[in-house]
Amino acid sequence: MNESIRLLSQKDGADKEYRVQLEAKDNGFIVTGFNGRRGGPLKAQPKITAPVPYDEAKKAFDALVKSKLKGGYKPADAGAEYVVPADVGTPTGIKLHLLTQVPESDVERYINDDRYLAQEKYDGERRPVARRETVIGSNKNGFQTTLPAAVVDVLSGLPQDTEIDAEQVGEVLYVFDVMKIAGECQRDVACYERKRKVDVLVNRLGNPANIVSIETAVGTEAKRALYARLRAERKEGIVFKRIDAGYGEGKNGDDQIKIKFIESATLQVAAIHPSKRSIAVQAIDDMGIPIPLGSVTIPANHPIPPVAALVEVEYLYVVKSLVQPNYRGERTDQTIASCNMRQLKYRAALGEDEATNDVDLLAA
Q1: Domain of residue 178, residue span
Q2: Following DSSP, what letter does each residue of 3-31 receive, concatenated?
Q3: Same-domain pairing of 54 and 126
Q4: How confident is the model over 165-210, as pLDDT tens digits?
Q5: What's the predicted TM-score (pTM) here?
Q6: CATH of the domain at 26
Q7: Do 249 and 140 reside in the same domain of the chain?
Q8: How many domains are contained in the chain?
Q9: 281 and 310: one domain?
Q10: Taking the C-alpha atoms of 316, 322, 323 and 325 in order, what is their torsion angle to the nearest 10 degrees?
Q11: Residue 10 resides in a domain
Q12: What is the C-alpha separation between 198 and 164, in angstroms, rounded?
């Protein structure tokens, strides 16, 4: 009598997902909500954690769904089930090697340096996983979190006491490193050799569609080709790693580098926040209709521009609004014609038709 529903919301320019899951556990039933960005990893919001009779759980499930529908969510397909660990939020003991960010202007340095390999920077959430008594997922800060049930099923085939490092995008785990295999520490093993061991582990799992060993480029020609393709496909960025470096803790100088593909757009100020240093910005579609793109904080070293002014904003990509926008200043050298929608880069996970629909929805 397990039950789940997937809900989506595009209210106020958002692109959110919420799932409600009712599942049997220990001779009773629990209810859990999951929320996050559409297509991204979902965070658990337990509603009934101690097992209760089905009728009681079903009542809570229906009430939660009803409240979300009233709040503007709409039903979608059922989506994948998630596993909620009993001790979610507790420390996992997994220490991560964090990436050091550098500007895209440095990309040639790492492409031309044969000491580095290159990999795609995925647009998801850092998700190291440990195969212990059970399969547990961790977040970037080292606390236990939920995993898609299908991922848990597959990773149960890993050797006991194995730790891998990955990025979770939706219900897929993109694996790029390994810290431990069958109790044997791999942190002092060279990066390129660790990636080879990742390939072997994923191959032994049967190369499932939801567990992917990511592409790795070695040598200037291969790295340049990867960079060009990721740029052309509007991906989030590229990662460079020292081939001979071990797996450390925290940030370790230039052993692991990330470069995000920052975009820039000329936009129009639509409104000024009455009490914060923030403005709402918009672009203009081909019909001359203003399309809202969210808000941008104005740094203290910049004056707040007036309504209708043209401004330059850097960002990663657009979903329903700008993601990670940074204000760069007023553009007195541009005209309103430069504020067109065609200059914007949409999230790569969206298909072309879906991206077009997003523009139409914004205009609606």
Answers
A1: 97-260
A2: EEEEEEE-GGG--EEEEEEEEEETTEEEE
A3: no
A4: 999 988 899 999 999 999 999 999 999 999 999 999 999 999 999 9
A5: 0.70
A6: 2.20.140
A7: yes
A8: 3
A9: yes
A10: 80
A11: yes
A12: 8
